[in-house]
Design brief:
The structure holds two protein chains of two kinds. Chain A contains three helices and no strands. The radius of gyration of chain A is 15 Å and the shape is elongated. The two termini of chain A are 26 Å apart. Chain B is globular, with a radius of gyration of 19 Å. Chain B is an all-alpha fold. Classes of the chains: A mainly alpha, B mainly alpha.
């Protein structure tokens, strides 16, 4: 059981913010792509980068508060 | 250019993971018996090889190209951001620095109270600790290398990087027979986090139909952006008082 728990931890990490945040950013990207394919092709990268950075910043702040 | 970046990314990521596995094997070998440490490690390497044979071809052969890019990107983002989160906290002094020596001591302590069986009898406790340590680090290596290898350009750069790392780390460990204490593991892991996150963001974007300005060079400015933001946050956190 402890090995399974460790494997789950190494894939999903120690906090749920990262997997949930990454899923949210990618899902939002898929929705925006479907809504405006042309604009997404040119500007989607900036939106994805901003989303991923926001997820990273939030996960670090939350982890720092919990310690 | 992507070829070189993938070689570097795979080599550094695999080196860091191998260092941790090596520390555990060395701890079992030094404090118990080398034969049992090597038997436990060999089982784990065989298990990882089976996982690699199953995961690699499945990713390469059965997933459509855009879905494959998105899957690779998501996997690398999950690994990379987790390493980057921990790295930022370590650089800010909010988490213990990463150390293979600590893993070495921890593995030795784990076996401290278990008596060593007489010569000629298998040391199952030692074998199990070596097996578990190598298996967990090995699975991480398999997932990272499989994700980097599943690029449309082929598995060569990821396998080359992983091969170089394996030769360098295992060779050094076999020669020294002690943990490599002078390696700045915290900074190395932070760098791996930046690289894997940049790869992940780039591949996930490609999978979602993003046309990155500059093509493959986007990996470089994404890595710079992630690194700069993480460093800034680490400095900001270091200046703030820790919660009581």
């Amino acid at each position: 059981m402890s090995t399974l728990r460790a494997i789950k931890k190494l894939v999903l990490g120690e906090t749920w913010i990262l997997p949930a945040g990454v899923a949210g950013v990618l899902l939002a990207g898929a929705v925006l792509k479907a809504a405006a394919p042309g604009a997404w092709e040119d500007g989607g990268g900036a939106i994805l980068a901003a989303g991923v950075l926001a997820v990273l910043l939030a996960s670090v702040v939350r982890s720092a508060r919990r310690r | 250019m992507t070829f070189v970046l993938v070689v570097i990314g795979a080599a550094v990521a695999v080196s860091v993971e191998l260092l941790e596995a090596l520390a555990i094997v060395l701890a079992v070998g030094v404090s118990r018996r080398w034969s049992d440490a090597l038997v436990g490690s060999a089982w784990a390497v065989a298990a990882c090889a089976v996982i690699a044979v199953v995961v690699g071809p499945v990713l390469l052969a059965s997933v459509p190209i855009d879905a494959l890019r998105l899957t690779i990107g998501t996997l690398l983002l999950l690994f990379g951001l987790e390493w980057l989160r921990k790295g930022t906290l370590r650089l800010a002094g909010r988490r213990a620095r990463s150390s293979s020596l600590a893993e070495f001591v921890e593995a030795q302590e784990e076996l401290h109270d278990v008596p060593l069986p007489p010569p000629g009898t298998p040391d199952w406790a030692g074998r199990l600790v070596a097996f578990k340590g190598v298996l967990l680090e090995g699975i991480e290596i398999v997932l990272i290398v499989a994700a980097l290898a599943a690029r449309p350009s082929g598995p060569a750069p990821a396998l080359l990087g992983a091969g170089c790392a394996a030769v360098a780390v295992v060779g050094t460990g076999a020669w020294l027979r002690k943990p490599l204490t002078r390696i700045p593991e915290t900074e190395l892991k932070w760098g791996v986090g930046v690289l894997l996150s940049a790869f992940g963001l780039f591949f996930a974007g490609e999978g979602l139909g993003v046309d990155w300005p500059g093509g493959d060079a986007a990996i470089l400015y994404l890595a710079f952006l992630l690194g700069a933001i993480s460093q800034a946050q680490a400095h900001w956190l270091a200046l703030r008082p820790e919660p009581a």
